[in-house]
Design goal:
heterotrimer, B: MetI-like fold, 13 helices, flat, C: alpha/beta, D-Maltodextrin-Binding Protein, domain 2, 2 domains, 6-stranded mixed β-sheet, 11 strands, 43% helix, disordered N terminus
């Protein structure tokens, strides 16, 4: 392959990738720009830089004043953090068991997990609510219990997806690795922790990110269980603000930015680990 | 595949019991309850069943005679097809392209994921501004390009005939495009992770054999990605069947003129707005049945060699 | 003052009618019996010892963008400071979803201690299951409870008892954009505005390049529905529900839907009325693109916060047709404070809940609420410092000769949802008005 041809195809590759990147970045920039724009100007002129007269901090001040962001961040991280950890631990074990073992009822369990992934949350939420109310978790007005009331169904809701994804990756781990470890005298649990987890590290990180994001962004479950202000999590807060804002698009934009920044941080931080996982954990042989 | 390591079944309990206990309590039991509800007459969310429907399978008959349900099915099937072709397709192409470059791969990986990070509520607000009737981003652009008809009244007032992006002629695009766009990054990450799990030795060997880029992709990458792609397919189908939040924020109840229903939004509307809890539950059952059937079919078609 | 009196009388009448319709037991307990007993036991000073602070779970509809949100918050704060108790405020914006959630809470035993909720058919599920305490029972222990209210104006449940202490009332009427009207040479409608004048004005406005009526038929057709129904009947029979589509009331509803279609066919609604959101069309009206908007008293707050100049807007009259005069409107008191059985049976919370409701429904607090023209207070409310639009509303309300409650409140949630989602099908000709009415009645 000659060098020239190669560089042309490289350039085309970068153009294609760059174009798509533009579509994913621009909306962010657009929202950020408009969060600094004075009220009323968004509908007439949303594309220019908000400079001079058009610039304002007011949207952020209003958002911060109107809502208790600090508390909501704390609630969101408690909920989503717990959900992520529990999902990764449980789903990893279950996926490993389902992939490597042959036992009666295995395909039944697999079908159940598949089906579980399709259960719309709206169809399970009411029975879950009744059950949790009976157990004295939901609807007590107690902040910590309410957070738990969100965590439990969210774990169940994310588990199926996580199991399916992890199964896909554990399947692609060459079984020879495990066999040689077994010959070296490792127990099954040791194999799981020393072979499988390192090999599928990146997949675990992927699953963790999705579990975190879905939990963080899941407005529906939040709005069902978290009613009182001190329990409110961040997505519920955004919804609250946007319903109050009416056509105050500047306020909406600033709230969106405030809500998105923490997840972006978490994502970018975890992203580093993924890459580490990708390179260090790559399976040789 | 069934290695001797896994002949002893006792550790299996430890692996499976915790996860499935959780699923049983918070997913399967509620869903069984949901199935029971489909045969009941339930007047409101909080109310207990008032007894069996007459006939008890009434809701299932309604499912097949309800014209809006037909609309929802049609739109959802379109969505599934578009999801498979565009979402997974674009994601695969982007993933392969990113795999082929050295500089900046990390950057693309990070930014492609951005749309998933934002909540659907926020995205919905954003796309509503983009497709807004009067003065939205797209319409502003069309106007400045002279693509919109205008009319001047005798009193000098200029009327612009804005393009209604949510009317019967345009809603499908306006509704599907944001959903497509948002989740490309999702499948992208899954596929990239899959690509990274492929041993580089295989490529080196292939390169030594003189295989060029396309042949490497065709004969090594794609076959090895089969499991991952199959997972993507299943996720795409099930995801499309229950897509809810973005269309709901943008279109609400069946806009325009009841032509814009999706199975997810129709079910939500029936359950939480029309208080038709039993019928909403029935739609939920249909969503699950369709999901299981369609993903089984796709598994059969695309994964013939592997068991499960 | 005389006019306000007339208005109050009208409300009273409406409620009496309601009561008759619901339970052949019109206002069973006369206020006379309770009034002298007011000073009997002196020991029930609300939470006077304040032994320890109580946390009350309170759910109201004063959430989100409600015009009275700030007033409600101020009152809650005053309560917290006065009693040392804490209020756990779970307020939200009222819509069908919120109503359903509240009912689910009762069903699962996680209801709040104090609830501000609709007093009509919506409240029946938890009233009939005994989850809230009647005013009669509360007064047995706290004789002063809600004595500043006219008992005759408290909603009567199907068991003949009263449960909720009324708060501020509401009205629905025509908002107009005076600037647009001026530009089109159309006069601001007065209390004698007729349907024919209105149609002619709409045509003029349309020809001048404006949208005559700001309304999202997709999201909020119910304001127009109420007035169109009243236009085809009278204020007295407005709250009748058809038994079938063929009876007199059914014919009235069908005629109303036909009027709807006529307005739509004439092109008086916005181009995108079937796909626009309520927020969009209201903003269109606010921006001077449309002339008329029917909405409720809660919308005044929106314009106060968003209008460039409040003097551009006024509250006028919905054109009258047939036996209805434009000076007749929709309004009343549809919500009130309930104390739940759960709070009542909790010795720590009983006094706190009573004190909370008493404070929130006191003359002083209710006078701060924006919509004070419709009130159940014995002494009336005394609002002060009205802005131009609020003043306009007060002026108009002084000319209102009769009001009726919204008939949609008497429908079940299913029937209501079905009817309003079918209006778009009726105006586009996909469904006949008869079928739409019949379909809704089948669910009622």
């Amino acid at each position: 392959m000659n060098r020239k041809k190669r560089s042309i195809s490289q350039t085309l590759t970068y153009i294609a990738l760059g174009l798509w990147a533009l579509t994913t970045i621009y909306p962010f920039i657009w929202v950020i720009l408009n969060s600094f724009r004075k009220k009323g100007l968004i509908l007439t002129d949303s594309f220019s830089l908000p400079l001079g007269d058009a610039f304002t901090w007011e949207n952020y001040l209003t958002a911060w004043q109107r809502a208790d962001f600090k508390n909501a961040y704390l609630n969101s991280f408690l909920i989503s953090g717990t959900v992520t950890v529990v999902v990764v631990v449980l789903a990893g074990l279950a996926a490993y068991g389902l992939v490597r073992y042959r036992f009666p009822g295995r395909s039944l369990l697999y079908s159940l997990v598949m089906a579980g992934m399709m259960f719309p949350v709206f169809s399970t939420i009411i029975p879950v609510f009744r059950m949790e109310a009976m157990m004295g978790i939901a609807g007590t007005g107690n902040r910590w219990l309410s957070l738990l009331a969100v965590i439990l169904p969210q774990i169940a809701g994310n588990l199926c997806f996580a199991i399916i994804i992890l199964m896909g990756f554990i399947q692609s781990v060459p079984i020879e690795l495990e066999e040689s470890a077994y010959l070296d005298g490792c127990s099954v649990l040791q194999i799981y922790f020393h072979i499988i987890i390192p090999a599928a590290k990146s997949s675990f990180a992927t699953v963790a990110i999705f579990a975190f994001l879905w939990s963080y962004n899941d407005l529906f479950t939040q709005s069902f269980f978290l009613r009182y202000p001190q329990e409110r999590a961040i997505t519920g807060l955004l919804n609250e603000i946007s319903s109050q804002a009416g056509v105050n698009y500047g306020l909406m934009a600033s709230s969106v930015v405030l809500v998105v920044i923490p997840v972006l941080l978490v994502y970018v931080l975890l992203q580093k680990h993924i890459v580490k996982g990708l390179t260090a954990g790559a399976i040789k042989g | 595949m069934n290695s001797m390591i896994y002949k002893k079944k006792t550790p299996l309990l430890l692996f499976l019991v915790p996860a499935f206990l959780f699923l049983a309590a918070f997913l399967f039991y509620p869903f069984v309850q949901n199935i029971i509800n489909t045969f009941m007459k339930i007047g409101g969310l909080g109310r207990a069943a008032e007894g069996l429907n007459t006939p008890w399978y009434e809701n299932y008959i309604r499912l097949f005679t309800d014209p809006y349900m037909r609309v929802a099915m049609k739109n959802t099937l379109v969505l599934i097809l578009c999801t498979i072709v565009f979402q997974v397709g674009i994601a695969l192409i982007l993933a392969l392209l990113v795999d082929g470059i050295r500089v900046g791969a990390q950057f693309f990986r990070t930014v492609y994921f951005f749309p998933i990070v934002i909540s659907a509520t926020a995205l919905g607000l954003m796309f509503n501004l983009i497709f807004l009737y009067k003065g939205g981003m797209v319409n502003q652009l069309l106007l400045s390009l002279g693509q919109l008809e205008t009319d001047v009244r005798p009193n000098g007032k200029v009327i612009v005939y804005w393009l209604d992006w949510k009317d019967q002629a345009h809603f499908l695009f306006t509704m599907l495009m944001p959903v497509m766009w948002q989740y490309v990054g999702f499948y992208f990450v899954i596929i990239v992770t899959g690509l990274n799990n492929i041993s580089p030795d295989l490529f080196e060997a292939a390169a030594l054999d003189g295989a060029d880029g396309w042949n490497r992709t065709r004969y090594i990458t794609l076959p090895l990605l089969r499991n991952v792609l199959c997972t993507c397919l299943v996720l795409a189908i099930t995801g499309a069947l229950k897509v809810f939040d973005l269309p709901w924020v943008m279109f609400g109840a069946g806009m325009p003129e009841n032509q814009g229903w999706l199975t997810g939004t129709y079910m939500y509307d029936q359950t939480f707005n029309k208080m038709n809890v039993d019928y909403g539950s029935t739609i939920a059952v249909l969503i699950v049945v369709l999901g299981v059937v369609l993903s089984n079919i796709s598994n059969r078609v695309f994964k013939p060699s592997e068991d499960l | 003052m005389k006019r306000i009196l007339a208005l109050i009388l009208a409300v009273l009448m409406v409620f009496a009618l309601c009561a008759c319709g619901q339970a052949q037991a019109p206002a069973a307990e006369a206020p006379a019996a309770e009034a002298p007993a007011a000073e009997a036991p002196a020991a029930e000073e609300p939470a006077a010892p304040a032994a320890e602070s109580v946390t009350l779970n309170v759910v109201t509809s004063y959430g989100g963008d409600d015009g009275n949100r700030a007033n409600f918050e101020a009152a809650v704060k005053a309560y917290e400071e006065a009693t040392g108790n804490k209020v756990n405020d779970g307020s939200a914006t009222s819509n069908e979803e919120w109503k359903a959630k509240v009912l689910t809470d009762f069903e699962t035993g996680s209801e709040p201690d104090v609830l501000f909720y609709f007093t009509n058919a919506d409240a029946e599920p938890f009233i009939s299951s005994g989850k809230v305490v009647s005013i009669e029972e509360i007064r047995a222990e706290y004789p002063d409870y809600a004595t500043n209210m006219k008992d005759s104006m408290m909603a009567v449940a199907s068991d003949g008892k009263q449960y909720a202490v009324p708060s501020s009332g509401y009205w629905e009427n025509m908002f107009v954009n005076k600037k647009v009207l001026e530009d089109c040479g159309v006069a601001v409608p007065g209390p004698d505005y007729t349907w024919d004048q209105f149609l002619a004005d709409c045509q003029t406005i349309k020809d001048a390049g404006y949208t005559p009526i700001a309304c999202s038929l997709f999201e909020v057709p119910h304001y127009w529905f109420e007035f169109l129904v009243m236009n085809n009947g009278t204020v007295e029979n407005h709250l009748d529900i058809p038994a079938s589509v063929d009876d007199e009331t059914g014919a009235k509803w069908v005629a109303a839907l036909n009027d709807f279609k006529a307005l739509y066919d004439a092109g008086f609604f916005p181009e995108n009325t079937l796909t626009a959101s309520d927020a969009e069309t209201v903003e269109m009206f606010n921006q001077g693109e449309a002339a008329f908007l029917i909405d409720g008293s809660w919308k005044v707050g929106y314009f106060t916060g968003n209008a460039a100049d409040l003097n551009d807007f006024a509250i006028a009259y919905v054109p009258g047709k047939g036996e209805r005069s434009a000076s007749e409107a929709i309004g009343g008191i549809s919500m009130g404070y309930f104390i739940t059985r759960k709070a009542w049976d909790d010795p720590a919370k009983r006094a706190a809940a009573v004190a909370f409701v008493s404070l929130l429904t006191s003359d002083e607090v209710l006078s701060t609420f924006v919509t004070t023209e419709v009130t159940a207070l014995v002494n009336g409310a005394k609002p002060a410092g009205l802005n131009p639009l609020q003043q306009s509303a007060a002026d108009t309300n002084a000319n209102i000769t009769a009001i009726a409650g919204a008939v949609q409140d008497l429908l079940t949630a299913e029937a209501r949802g079905d009817l309003f989602s079918n209006i778009q099908n009726v105006v586009t000709g996909k469904m006949t008005p008869e079928d739409a009415v019949a379909s809704a009645l089948a669910l009622n």
